Automatic annotation (TrEMBL):
It comes from Streptomyces pseudovenezuelae. This is Sensory transduction protein RegX3. One of its GO terms (molecular function) is transcription cis-regulatory region binding. Keywords: DNA-binding, Phosphoprotein, Transcription, Transcription regulation, Two-component regulatory system. It holds the Pfam family Response_reg. InterPro entries: CheY-like_superfamily, OmpR/PhoB-type_DNA-bd, Sig_transdc_resp-reg_receiver, WalR-like, WH-like_DNA-bd_sf. The keyword Nucleus does not apply. Residues 130-225 form the OmpR/PhoB-type domain. The keyword Phosphoprotein applies.
Length: 228
C-alpha cells in the first residue's frame, strides 16, 4: 500500500518511514501542508492512507485535513498531541477517518492503518443494497451512502455512516460494543473502544439529535427511533 506521510520533522519521518517500509508500505513524505496537497493533485487514487501530523509549519493541520477531504476520499488518520474529546470530534467533523494521540505505540499506529484500510475495502458491502432506511426525520440512503435530516444532507465520514447504518438496521436493539467494533471496524482490537465513543459523540453532534443514539451503560448502544 502507498501511504502519504505528512510530517515536518525529518528525523521522526525517517524513523517512521523505516518502520512502515518494514511492514510493506511504500511511503511518500510531505514536509508541509502544501506539499501534501500537491501530492494529492489531481487525484490520490495511488495512496491508500494519508497519515497527517497536525503540527505543520505552514498551515494548521485541521485546515489541511479539510482541504484534503475536498479533493479526495482517501482515508486520513490524524496524529495529534491533543487528547481531549472536543479536539477529536473537530477532526472527525472535518473528514478525518481516525486519529492517533502522541505519544503512540507503533503497533497501535499499524493497527489503525490496517483497520482504516479494511473499512475502505468493505465500503461496498455496507452500501450494496437498493434500499433506504427511514427513521423519522433521518433518511439513510445505503446505495449512495448519503444521510439527510429533514431533507438536509449531513456529511459523514465512512466510519460514521457505517456505524449509523448498523444501528439503524435494527432500531431499539442494543448492539454490544464488541459487536459494533467487529462490524464497523472489522477488528477485535480493544483499543478501538475509545474511537467508538468519539464517533458516537460525533454522530450525535452532526445529526443534531443527541437522543437518537442511546448509551446502554456497560453494554453498548442502540438507536432510538420514533415509536420504538
Amino acid at each position: 500500500m502507498r501511504l502519504l506521510l505528512v510530517e515536518d520533522d525529518n528525523h521522526v519521518a525517517a524513523a517512521l518511514s523505516a518502520v512502515l517500509a518494514r511492514h510493506g508500505f511504500d511511503v511518500t513524505h510531505a514536509r508541509s501542508g502544501e506539499e501534501a496537497l500537491q501530492a494529492l493533485v489531481p487525484e490520490s487514487d495511488g495512496f491508500g492512507v494519508v497519515l497527517l501530523d497536525l503540527g505543520l509549519p505552514d498551515q494548521d493541520g485541521y485546515e489541511v485535513c479539510g482541504k484534503i477531504r475536498k479533493r479526495t476520499s482517501t482515508p486520513v488518520i490524524m496524529v495529534t498531541a491533543r487528547s481531549d474529546v472536543r479536539s477529536r470530534i473537530h477532526g472527525l467533523n472535518l473528514g478525518a477517518d481516525d486519529y492517533v494521540v502522541k505519544p503512540y505505540d507503533t503497533g497501535e499506529l499499524l493497527a489503525r492503518i490496517h483497520a482504516v484500510s479494511r473499512r475502505t475495502a468493505h465500503e461496498d458491502v455496507t452500501g450494496g443494497g437498493d434500499t433506504a432506511l427511514v427513521l423519522g426525520a433521518v433518511r439513510i440512503e445505503l446505495p449512495t451512502r448519503q444521510v439527510t435530516v429533514d431533507g438536509t444532507v449531513v456529511q459523514l465520514t465512512r466510519k460514521e455512516f457505517d456505524l449509523l447504518a448498523l444501528l439503524a438496521q435494527r432500531p431499539g436493539v442494543v448492539f454490544r460494543r464488541e459487536q459494533i467494533i467487529s462490524e464497523v471496524w472489522r477488528t477485535s482490537w480493544e483499543g478501538t473502544g475509545r474511537t467508538l465513543e468519539v464517533h458516537v459523540a460525533s454522530l450525535r453532534a452532526k445529526l443534531r439529535m443527541p437522543a437518537l443514539i442511546e448509551t446502554v451503560r456497560g453494554v453498548g448502544y442502540r438507536l432510538v427511533a420514533p415509536g420504538v
